[in-house]
Amino acid sequence: MFSSTTEFKNTFLKRLNMVCGKSFSESSERDHYQTLGIMIREFVSHDWIKTNERYLAAKEKQVYYLSIEYLLGKLLRQNLINLGIEETVQVGLSELGIDLSNLEELESDAGLGNGGLGRLAACFLDSLASLNLPGHGHGIRYKHGLFEQKIVDGYQVELPEQWLRSGNVWEVRKADLAVKIPFWGKVEGRTENGRLVFQHLNAETVTAVPHDMPVIGYNSETVNTLRLWNAEPSQFPIHEDILKYKRETESVSEFLYPDDTHDEGKILRLKQQYFLVSASIQSIIKTYRKQHGNLKELHQHVCIHINDTHPVLAIPELMRVLIDEEGFDWDLAWNITRQTISYTNHTTLSEALEKWPIRIFQPLLPRIYMIVEEINERFCGELWDKYTGDWDRIARLAVIADGFVKMAHLAIVGSFSVNGVAKLHTEILKTREMNQFYQLFPEKFNNKTNGIAHRRWLLKGNPDLSNLITDSIGSSWTQSPADLIQLLNYQHDSSFMEQLLKIKRDNKERLAEVIQSKNGIVVDSSAIFDVQVKRLHAYKRQLLKVLHIMYLYNRIKEDSSFSMVPRVFIFGAKASPGYYYAKKIIKLINTVADKVNNDPFIGDKMKVVFLENYRVSLAEKVFPAADLSEQISTASKEASGTGNMKFMINGALTVGTMDGANIEIHELVGDENIFTFGLSADEVLHYYQHGGYQSIEYYHHDSRIRQAVDQLVNGFFPGVYNEFEPIFDSLLEENDQYFVLKDFASYADTQKTIGETFRDQQVWQKKCLVNIAHAGYFSSDRTIKEYADNIWGIKPQ
Ligand code: 26V
């Protein structure tokens, strides 16, 4: 479309007039952003339509990825890169006096997710399209994504996020494809031609309207679709309060739930889940019918993947369609359903496993509940045949028990594939958390180690490093990330290594500017940039890093002979609004930051920075500037982690426990190129089972620990009396459930080694290079190929 910048400029100016109804001289930056967005959509519309036609005609298998979260971030520059027109557009705009990066700033982050799970879904979409795979996302078009975080007086304050305030140029509303979703009401059964048929009566319906976003593949003609469903009123009732009805229906897609909420009581959350599932399945079936007619071979042409258990009602919903609408008998419907659905588990934390009380589930979704009951009864019958008399086991495995529907059990029983997200995580599922299911269905369990969209996290996020890599090994790595391994040949190339160092320095300086402008803190970019960015959770142990910072501070103050390489400790984290303890940790980080940063005796030896409102677009500035990646979860708790991979590919070294995908990073780079410490998963799980850990002993026997822990409550932080007592209590009264004190010494020793290693920049940079070279494995292209080949059975088209 634009083979030259002149052509681009001409089209841009014409479109600007049309889109904004203004002359160029009157137009604003927002007009320019809007115009460019619309031009890109126009530019891809041909390929978008062609892609769909191709899929329709080929009748090959398709996958539908159902996820309650998509953490997309900004799309403008990534779309330009994937289309191969970044350069043309950037030059063209600048000739018009427009700075592309200013336009990027105007775009809101699409923040429709909490953390790793939502970002993974976004990375997967990029890989599906870039690999020309027929895979489509379905999700909810939340009006408000994850809250915006402000730090006021050291405390987190949440503001509603407003990504749709100025519209969303990437979406196309398709009102003609709207579907209706029934809630409440009652189900009546009657016999028709000797067959029991069910009708859902007096339901309150919400209309789901699809808003489609193009998912543009990198250097490919494939444009897949992310379909986000918006909740709207169906026909307005005549007698009731119309405004109330409008409010109630729209509330279904109003807010993303933060991940701490104990879902059990939240009717609206269950409504969201069924809303997503029912709308998606209705739409999938409609498309399928057009292509293939009847549904007997659905599983041969369609795979429906559920991202965690949130969309698990896809199982009973598909059963409903097959039985009530298609007229299949139970066994046929069950066979088809079980071969259509696949499921990823993303956590073994018991508090995160979803269960819904029957008293909420049954009245809200009466027909779906009947089907779940039937699934449960038949499954328990099978269990009875296998484990006759073993009531305990049957009760533990049942889909419905103790007044609750257990969503993970439904997912395992109703799917053909259950996968974990890193080797250790899958092992823990098989041997511990889901062992009894594994014994029943060993063939269903498999591992798919997570990955990241390396085109966002390296190609887009770190352009200087990308250019250096391309200049050295060529550009094939953008599509074959394993080619990064060729970088190993440059370990002894001093010019290459110098450039690598310079790029890191420049990236650190850019982040230093952000820190200065946002936090008012001046940091020295020759210091170690030591970074922990992720959701705030006790198991991720931001506290371990804080206690270590307090220890270093104490050392500097008390021991004049103590010397250390200067460090900038950087944190970014949102705490769920209802997660009291996590919010205390945020206040603690900010309190420590105040104390350290304002102590003239400390000067540049260390600084502590809390970056407000951590999100995808900020993450893209942080990873390229990091020297050290903190992956310090209590072993066994972090299913995979994906931030660890983003740091690695940007040339940061990991300090980490043997947890999640850290284990695979270690396996690839070897002992020499990662800093591991702490208890192993087996040791942690052994303590949980058999006891034997007394945190108080570590407090008594390690004066470094005692001093820092006491400082939480002894007035060391002026003006925050009592504030950190809950943290103090979690460590001593509650016996430190996450082994912070137990792992402290090992962490401190490792950090000492890290400091010493950093002194020799040549040694350090070489380790960074080894990490980058091996990071190709963690591209989501590799992950998605594994899903495509081993679970979904889909092929490039
Ligand atoms: C949810 C909850 C809710 C209740 C309170 C405790 C709690 C703890 C964790 C979660 C998250 C559950 C699902 C999730 O986001 N898992 C993350 O998925 C990522 C992608 O697979 C993975 O890299 C992370 O390790 C994993 O935590």
From TrEMBL:
Q: Summarize the protein's role.
A: Allosteric enzyme that catalyzes the rate-limiting step in glycogen catabolism, the phosphorolytic cleavage of glycogen to produce glucose-1-phosphate, and plays a central role in maintaining cellular and organismal glucose homeostasis.
Q: Which reaction does it catalyse?
A: [(1->4)-alpha-D-glucosyl](n) + phosphate = [(1->4)-alpha-D-glucosyl](n-1) + alpha-D-glucose 1-phosphate
Per the entry, which co-factors are needed?
A: pyridoxal 5'-phosphate
Q: Which InterPro entries match?
A: Glycg_phsphrylas, Glyco_trans_35
Q: What Gene Ontology terms describe what this protein does at the molecular function level? A: 1,4-alpha-oligoglucan phosphorylase activity
> What family is reported?
Belongs to the glycogen phosphorylase family.
For this protein, what is the EC number? 2.4.1.1
Q: What is the lineage of its organism?
A: Bacteria, Bacillati, Bacillota, Bacilli, Bacillales
List the keywords (alphabetical): Carbohydrate metabolism, Glycosyltransferase, Pyridoxal phosphate, Transferase
- Which protein, by its recorded name, is this? Alpha-1,4 glucan phosphorylase
